[in-house]
Structures are given as C-alpha cells and as structure tokens.
Amino acid sequence: MTTSQPHALTGLTVAVTAHRRAQEQGGAFERHGARVQYAPALKITPTDEDDDVVAAVRETVASAPGTVLVTTGYGVKRWLAVAEEHGLREELLAALRASTVYARGAKAKGQLQALEIPCAYTGSSGRTAELVDRVLEAGAPGTVTVQLHGTADEEQLERQRSAGLDVRVVAPYRWESADEGSRLSLLVREIAAGDVDYVTFTAAPAVDAVLDAASAAACRDDVVASLREGRCTAVAIGPVCVQPLEEAGITNAVVPERFRLGAMVKAVCDHATAAASR
Q1: 193-238 per-position pLDDT tens digit
Q2: Whole-angstrom Cα distance, residue 229 to residue 50?
Q3: 194 in any annotated domain
Q4: 208-232 burial by CB neighbour count: b if 16+ within 10 A, else e?
Q5: Within this chain, do residues 244 and 233 fall inside the same structural domain, yes or no?
Q6: Do 56 and 134 reside in the same domain of the chain?
Q7: Residues 29, 54 within the same domain
Q8: Are residues 162 and 126 in the same domain?
Q9: pLDDT per residue over 95-152, tens digit each?
Q10: Helix and strand tally (H, E) in the chain?
Q11: Which of 32, 98, 247, 257 has the greatest number of CB atoms lying within 10 Å of its CB?
C-alpha cells in the first residue's frame, strides 16, 4: 500500500463540495500541502413540516413488529427527535426494538447501538440495494419501513412493492442548495478549465448538484470531459456517492476502500503521489 507523504498535495488545488464538516475536510487536505477552496453544493435540513414524519412514527408503532431499513444515523436521530416533540419517543423506540432492523452501514449501526436498538444486519456496500436484497431473501413478513436519506430511491422501493411487501417511507430530512453567491458556478468553470486538481464529494446528490450547476453555466460537457480525462480528478467517499459520476461516464474517480473522511484524504494523497512518480 502506498504511504501518504506529509506534503503529497503541495501545489495542488482541492475543491470541497461538502457543507457538513467542510472545514474539517479542508483542514486535512491543507495539512498535506493542498490549496483548498470551498463550494458547498447541498446541505441537510429538517423537513419543512413534521406531519409526515409524525405519521410515519404512528404507522411504525402501529405495525410493529415489522422490518425497518435505516440508511443514516442522522435520519434515526431526527426521526426520534420529531417523535419526542410529540410525546412518542418511547413508543417509537419500543417499536424499533421489537422490529427487525437493518442498517445500511457502520454509522447507522452505531446510532442504533447507542439507542440499544438491535441490528439484525449491517450492509457492507453502503447501498440500500443490499438491504433490499436481504429483505427479499428473508421473505420479511409485515410492513417494511424505509428511512430515506434525503431523496427516495424509487427503484429499491419498487423492488419491494413488486414482491408484494407493504412498504412505507419516512423522510426525516431533505437536501437543499448550500450555494452562496456564485461559488458553484465558478467551480464548474474551473473544473472545465482544469484549474482544479481534485473535487471531492461526500454525498451522491452533491454530484448531481455540481453537474446541474455545470449545465446552468453551459459547460457540462467540458466539466464531464475534464473529469473523464483526469485534468481534474473526482473523489467520492464511497460506492453510493460515486454512482452518479459513473452514470455520467466518469469512471476514474478516486474512491477509498473505507468510507471515511480520513481514508478519502489518504486516497487522494496516494493518488497524487502515484501521479507525480509517473
């Protein structure tokens, strides 16, 4: 395995599109010598109205024990916070503890463990599809409740409905634009020109937001070409995040083996070190 050098990124520019933990990410790249610019694409916000979340709480309680697919730790926290505001936290906790709960990844599992909610299965790929595979293999009886991670994965919901399952969703939060001024517009032009060496993504919707910004700036083809050719290298924190890049024909993104911020920084350092030695 390549060892990251302390100044592996000296002279290189890394663009950070994250909103959450952006300064932490940027600081890690700066410690390796990079110039960092920030262009947050999207941010997580609570839903405007809690009515649908409260309804999902009541449905989960009424249908327990069922099957629950947890996609994010934050989603569980937000779901329980809404339940608490309406005096339903303990009922929801009891329903979740009585149900068969699957976690999409380690962070979701960690949140379940903190709440003393048994986790029957933890995905290793980071994809909701893996949990749905497990549900369909198990022939899970009763209601399946899917905690959405900002947007609905209609393909996976339809797979379960087509199998005759009673599928319900809860959306404790949503994505909205985090762009202030014209930073995204400037970023996509810099990517197109090859003036940015790496652009990092920690959520799949952020990829779509950047490509949409490129379309609005009339330079999408140039951005995609720059990323495909490696004049600017895309960096995705995991297999879910990289999916929209691959769908756009960008198949050379840097993806760490572990879906963690530190691992992503190391992967970029290793990539830059390897490129410099060629």
Answers
A1: 999 999 999 988 899 999 999 999 999 999 999 999 999 999 999 9
A2: 45
A3: yes
A4: bbbbebbeebebbebbbbbbbeebb
A5: yes
A6: yes
A7: no
A8: yes
A9: 999 999 999 988 899 999 999 999 999 998 888 999 999 999 988 667 999 998 877 7
A10: 12, 11
A11: 32
What are the pLDDT digits (tens) for 1-54?
A: 344 566 899 999 999 999 989 999 999 999 999 999 999 998 888 765 678 889
Q: Give the E-state strand segments of the chain in sequence order.
A: 13-16, 35-38, 42-46, 67-70, 100-103, 121-122, 143-147, 166-170, 173-177, 198-201, 233-236
Q: Which two tokens stand for residue 95?
A: 């329903």
The whole domain housing 146 covers 46-175
The reply to whether 61 and 170 lie within a common domain is yes
Q: Strand 67-70 vs strand 143-147: parallel, antiparallel, or unpaired?
A: parallel
Number of domains in the chain: 2
Residues 29 and 13 sit within 8 Å (Cβ to Cβ): no
Query: Token pair of 74, please?
Result: 């934050």
Q: Are residues 171 and 149 both part of a single domain? A: yes
Concatenating the DSSP letter of every residue in 39-105 gives: ---EEEEE-S-SHHHHHHHHHHHHH-S-EEEE--HHHHHHHHHHHHHTT-HHHHHHHHHHSEEEESS
CA distance 137 to 131: 10
Could you tell me if 81 and 202 lie in one domain?
no
CATH of residue 242: 3.40.50.10090
Give the domain-ending residue among 175, 196, 212: 175
Question: What whole-number distance in Å separates Cα of residue 194 and Cα of residue 105?
Answer: 34
pTM for this one?
Answer: 0.75
CA-based end-to-end distance of the chain: 17
Going from the C-alpha of 183 to that of each of 13, 83, 205, the distances in angstroms are 15, 37, 17
